[in-house]
Amino acid sequence: MNIKIMSSGCYIPTKVIDNTTFDQFDFRDEHGQPLKDTNQRTAYKLQQITGIEERRYVENELTTSDIGTIASENALKNADIDPETLDYIIFAHNFGDVKHGTLQSDIVPSLASRVKHNLKIANPSCVAFDVLFGCPGWLQGVIQAYAFMKVGMAKRCLVIGAETLSRVIDLHDRDSMIYADGAGATILELTNEEGGILSVESASYTLDEAFFIHYGKSYNPELDENTKYIKMFGRKIYEFALTNVPLAMKSCVDKSGIDISKIKKVMIHQANEKMDEAIVKRFFELYDMEMPEHIMPMNIQKLGNSSVATLPTLYDMIINRQLDPHQLEQGDVILFASVGAGMNINAFTYQV
Question: What span, in angstroms and rounded, lies between the C-alpha atoms of 209 and 162?
Fold first, then answer.
């Protein structure tokens, strides 16, 4: 028996936020001083580094569990299965439900329980729980579902990755321009079909790296210092990722037994275009190869960094041929990889 992604679904928010939206923002540095560059120059530099031209924010009435539900409904519809047959619902996020106009996170009950409730699933044997694993959360949810199925604890799992980062950003921090909202969902199933998950890799670096991404006070010193927002040490994350992610990717591929030449696509967390390109380039250098053309699909240009939602959204777009020139055929091998808060890294190889 093999473990395959039988269907996928996503929710792309309708509110488009382009870089000119930030023209009038009061950006400060970590010391509370106004930035020397104009906002237009700051946005231009960000686009050159990250590739982000625009991002998506959810409408005011929606929360993370709401958009996770919509993505799940789409995945279930595409699979044409009865929700009552799900053994697990695993919801990857990092900040819970944060309602518009507030900063308080609500994770009781869990977001997975809320999705199960929204889907009107009565079966108590369908176990619902959340995963907090930074940006690699959806991928870690897939790895956990894979483990459950490998040992006979499940036959069918729904794995969701959703986030509304627009609700937890510091509007005085230029890094706020990176973040976005979105949701993706996948249904994994035990099947007699060929392919599926071939190998997995997962690691947590916490001795020196745990707080590279953290909650911190606003860069505006006039605001309440006890109110916290998402913060990151960008340079440290960049150096950490370039050192450790390619090695994890190589370990995962080597475990699979697949020759590196058979990898059709590398689907990496949409964090930063330049960083992702450098990671994938260094990964292929470990095999004394140049990075192949069209190997790394990207949707960050239009969707921004939606954390746990980037990979399932990217996969869904490619499966549905919505990201030219990228497409997948039966038998193609993909390498998924992600890095994020924790600091956590994971990867898995997958044959369509």
Answer: 24
Averaged pLDDT, groups of 10, the chain, 352 residues long? 96 95 91 91 91 96 98 96 97 96 92 98 98 97 97 97 96 94 98 94 97 95 91 95 97 96 96 95 96 95 97 96 91 97 97 95
Q: Give the number of other Cβ atoms within 10 Å of residue 244's Cβ.
A: 17
Classify 76 as helix, strand or coil.
helix
Residues 6+ apart with CB under 8 A from 264: 295, 328, 332, 333, 334
* Dist CA 169 CA 13 (whole Å): 17
DSSP 292: P
Q: Which two tokens stand for residue 45?
A: 């530099």
Query: Which run of H or of E encompasses 161?
Result: strand 156-164
- According to DSSP, residue 95 is labeled S
Bridge partners of 187, per DSSP, are 7, 158
- Phi, psi dihedral angles at 139 (to 5 degrees): -60, -40
Question: 345 - beta bridge partners?
Answer: 203, 339
Q: Of 245, 261, 168, which is closest to residue 201 (Cα–Cα)?
A: 245
| Residues pairing with 7 in the sheet | 187
Alpha-carbon span 186 to 74, nearest angstrom: 9
Helix axes 39-50, 273-285, angle to 10 degrees: 20
What is d(CA 242, CA 96) in angstroms, rounded to the nearest whole number?
Answer: 29
Distance between CA atoms of residues 336 and 158, nearest Å: 18
